[in-house]
Amino acid sequence: MTALLRLSSAIDAVTAFIGRSVSWLILVAVLVSAGNAIIRKAFDTSSNAWLELQWYLYGAVFLLAAAYTLQRNEHVRIDIATSGLTKKTRDWIDLLGHILFLMPFCILMVYLGWPFFWNSFQNGEISLNAGGLTIWPAKLLILASFILLSAQGISEIIKRWAVIRGIIDDPTVQHELPAAVEALESTADLSNRVNKS
Q1: Which residues cross the membrane (predicted)?
Q2: Is residue 172 part of a domain?
Q3: Separation of CA 20 from chain center
Q4: What's the total number of domains in the chain?
Q5: 140 within domain boundaries
Q6: What residues have CB less than 8 Å from 65, skipping those under 6 apart?
Q7: Relative orientation angle of helices 48-64 and 136-164, to the nearest 10 degrees
Q8: For 174-188, what is each residue's pLDDT tens digit?
Q9: Beta bridge partners of 126
Q10: Secondary-structure percent of the chain, ordered helix, strand, coil, rounded to 5
Q11: pTM
């Protein structure tokens, strides 16, 4: 298990580095967008390449930061459905969810993403818009994002199994209700007890 936890730590380090690095692309995208708008208004000219570059940059952030979002436990959850369950049950739900849903989907996307990218790369696919960009880098981002998400999924499975077995403390604070909600639930429980007596 120690070797697996070391692998998980290495995956987490790579994921965190990529996630933090690509976040800077938002600034680049905003600058490209602002520059494009200024040029369009000031000189009455525009370029599809600049517009498509904005899409590529936003897409890169969204796709390449997905694994980092999973690592930091900031992905979308339906906590209201699981908040009443025990911590161990929630850990099992996470583990089985990663194994049965996340990993098969990521593996399928990598399997389908490779020919999607490779065909575009071999054919030198270019945007249909006049002056548009080459398309294969965007398709490569899709493939890369699911490879990263698959790796992070493996890391999450290792960590969740270690948490369930009591080998490590939970590295994420998850499914915890805010103190105000817990106070309201306690008040509601007390009110129900008073009404019953």
Answers
A1: 21-43, 55-71, 92-114, 134-151
A2: yes
A3: 12
A4: 1
A5: yes
A6: 18, 19, 22, 23
A7: 10
A8: 544 445 545 555 555
A9: 134
A10: 75, 0, 20
A11: 0.78
Structure tokens at 16: 């965190």
Residue among 57, 62, 77 at smallest CA distance from 19:
62
How is residue 34 written in tokens? 């602002």
Which structure tokens are listed for 181?
Answer: 């909600």
Residue 15 belongs to domain spanning: 2-77+84-185
Structural domain includes residue 197: no
Paired with 134 in beta bridges are: 126
Q: Please give the Cα distance from 185 to 152 (Å, whole number).
A: 35
Whole-angstrom distance, CA of residue 118 vs CA of residue 100? 28
C-alpha dihedral sign at 104, 15, 154, 91 = negative
∠ CA(123), CA(57), CA(39), 5° rounding?
100
Q: Which two tokens stand for residue 21?
A: 């690095």
Question: What 8-state DSSP symbol labels residue 126?
Answer: B
Place of tokens 């199994």: 161
On whether residue 191 sits in a domain, the answer given is: no
Each residue of 93-146: pLDDT tens digit? 889 999 999 999 999 999 999 999 999 999 988 888 887 788 999 999 999 999
